[in-house]
Amino acid sequence: MDLRQGIGLRKLGKTADEFQQDLLSNLYYRRGTTVESASARDAYEALAQTVRDHLAERRARTAAAQFASNPRWVYYLSAEYLLGAQLEQNLLYSGTGDLAAEAVKALGFGLEDLEDLDVEPGLGNGGLGRLAACLVDSLATRDIPAVGYGIRYDLGIFRQVITEEGQAELPDDWAFHGNPWEFPAPDDRQAVGFYGHTEPIPGSTTRKVWVPGEVVLGEPSHMLVPGFGTETVNIIRLWSAKASEASFDLSRFSAGQYAEAVQEAVRAENISKVLYPDDSTELGRELRLKQQYFLVSCSLRDIVRRFRLRNEGWDTFADKTVIQLNDTHPTIAIPELMRLLVDEYEVEWEQAWEITRRTFAYTCHTLLPEALETWPVRMFEKLLPRHLEIIYLINMLFLREVEARFPGDHDRLRRMSIIQEDPERRVRMAHLAVVGTEAVNGVAELHSKLLRETVLDDFAALWPAKFQNVTNGVSPRRFIKIANPRLSDLITEGLGDDSWVGDLERLAGLERLADDASFRERWQAIKRANKVDLAAGDPDSLTDVMIKRFHEYKRQQLKLLHVITLYQRIRQNPAADWVPRTVLFAGKAAPAYHAAKDIIRLIATIAARIEADPVVSPYLKVVFPSNYNVTLAERIIPAADLSEQISLAGKEASGTGNMKLALNGAVTIGTLDGANIEIRARVGEDNFFLFGLDAYEAARARINGYQPRHFYERDEELRAAMDTLTSGVFGEVGRRVADSLLGWDEYLTLADFRSYLECQEQVEKSWRDPARWTRMSILNTAHSGFFSSDRTVADYAARIWRVAPVPVPRED
Ligand code: CJB
């Protein structure tokens, strides 16, 4: 019997009638309703299932092709995935958009109404989580056999509400109505241990038995990750913590102790309850460490299970497996793989270490010292006693290696040790990640260079070949094709076909159109139409956007000083020929990061003040839409004229919002930081507004005793802006922000103020010449091809993973 028919795989290439039939059958049999009584939600769910089933057929063929070829698999381990809404993406990737529109219309609904019901799973904080989502998209697009592992947080990144009081946080129960994109896989559940103690094994010096004090179940579900323009459909597998049956205390329940009866179960399930809303600045807490180990333990057992389905012994494990650690959050995977190999599978330590080192690679995403994760040794000892022993042994052998290379250099040993001694003994996760991997990469050229020269310099001296750069990228599907349909259509027309969506370097063909006046006019009209859709302000004003997490190093406060200065200039001279601007801020601050929340509140206060001022408001408007997320980004980015990338040089590892904005024809004003440098090199110096200190000048300024007051005293406009804050007219929050800037100014805001303002004047000069501005805009898009995450994945595949594509045959 033909098994395909046996399991009833449905054929693709459906007719409108067949698609309609599938939709109706989902409506009847899965939603249990009828055409007459179907609600919008019924229609949405039935449609989502129909599209999902369509991709599931490709998934089945993908799994068959990938398993048959027994390749080296890429496993991407990430505590965060900021996936964005799924419906529109899956319609595009499955090519069923038109069929879907027609089918739901027959039910009396518009596709757009149903898209409004498609909730984005906010399983990430910011750039790092969104990068993970772009990379899994491009892995599938490149036909690379891969699985992304993550945590299925019940509550994603908080919902933000902005008022004049600043940011309020509400829980994000994203799957309240269920998640139609997900397949549960309870049979693949894993048991994860915590706490307890270790026992020696007689006759062995390296093996031990770990007897955990608590066991929690990890239950996986997966979401489909289709490739674009190819047959491949990969998956991300997300783990939910479940209490074991034994954790429900029936006798207590019978005795009326209801809370006590479930307390153990609640504690277990809390592990995947919430995404930590920290970004970079880490509040180390036991639950967070538990989450990390939970992700790692479930995923590694799953990876080993998958390996053993097709292979025997351990000799080929590293040839068939590469595990990419997305920052240090999943780094416990290194001692965990050692524990599995040595303790459970009885592999000799040396062989296990060789396998481990060849299996892992580590991506670092920061340069901020406070963002380099460390965990107290006493917490590790309590929660993961066996892992701490293994880390000690890894460290001892590692320090021996260092000692052999640099005899007698005790300071070096202290600096490089995986264990920090003072002021408190802590495990340095970044050191563990460098020691236990084959490759370490930064995420932009400058970042990778600074990693080698500063935070990881000792390691780069020991193992220079281990350190690489892989510049980040973004998905062209989500961030232009879907986000900006008008511009996408014009580009397709200009280039003659739409192959650029899967081969972004083709955008370079737009260069010749930058000098075509009629093309420029159409380009400009599209930007305007996108602004009308966004409805943030006057569509003819310069739309100046700063969209990203709130962090002092990103310097939203510098933008704010610019706004205050414009406000004061306009008030002093209302009759001058001002360039109307709409300044749009969006982004979240970690709930416990008070300085960042102060800046949000100050922006909200100043926005209201400007709005109420009849002299200034015709020229200047500040808007702050609530709850920045992927969906909102997709609306703002196509409408942006100016992209603010103004971090202190040497602090932003890469940035990816900068790439999305340039791709959509926003011109960047930015410092020589992160990927800004590479954007500028590609779009050309004339099409980028550069200001500020570079990374080396910034580091030197601090060493030379930087005094913010020095700048305050010498710059009249800066002084006026700061004095306004200090005067209290914008409340206590204005005073606090001013005090922090005048007192220490960690990120040299005042040092870069004048250069930034002068650069903004250049921006206005260019803006006044629409032909020139539009030319710059077109050239930004034309030269953004490098920033496709398809290129990023190709780089990882060639230089770090050494994997080849496994194409999936088309349906016969
Ligand atoms: N990043 O979003 C985060 N969270 C962190 O904890 C550390 C870094 C960001 O990662 C992005 C992707 O690599 C970078 O573009 C960005 O510069 C960095 O801040």
UniProtKB/TrEMBL annotation:
SUPFAM superfamilies membership: UDP-Glycosyltransferase/glycogen phosphorylase (SSF53756)
Catalyzed reactions: [(1->4)-alpha-D-glucosyl](n) + phosphate = [(1->4)-alpha-D-glucosyl](n-1) + alpha-D-glucose 1-phosphate
InterPro entries cross-referenced by the UniProt entry: Glycg_phsphrylas, Glyco_trans_35, Pyridoxal_P_attach_site
Alphabetic keyword roster: Carbohydrate metabolism, Glycosyltransferase, Pyridoxal phosphate, Transferase
Protein's name according to its UniProt entry: Alpha-1,4 glucan phosphorylase
Cofactor: pyridoxal 5'-phosphate
Keyword Membrane: no
Coiled-coil annotated residue ranges, if any: none
Classification via Gene3D superfamilies: Glycogen Phosphorylase B
E.C. code: 2.4.1.1
GO terms under cellular component: cytoplasm
Chain positions found as N6-(pyridoxal phosphate)lysine: 660
EC class of the enzyme, as a word: transferase
Entry's family note: Belongs to the glycogen phosphorylase family.
Role according to the record: Allosteric enzyme that catalyzes the rate-limiting step in glycogen catabolism, the phosphorolytic cleavage of glycogen to produce glucose-1-phosphate, and plays a central role in maintaining cellular and organismal glucose homeostasis. Phosphorylase is an important allosteric enzyme in carbohydrate metabolism. Enzymes from different sources differ in their regulatory mechanisms and in their natural substrates. However, all known phosphorylases share catalytic and structural properties.
One of the GO biological process terms: glycogen catabolic process
CDD domains: GT35_Glycogen_Phosphorylase (cd04300)
GO terms of molecular function: glycogen phosphorylase activity; pyridoxal phosphate binding
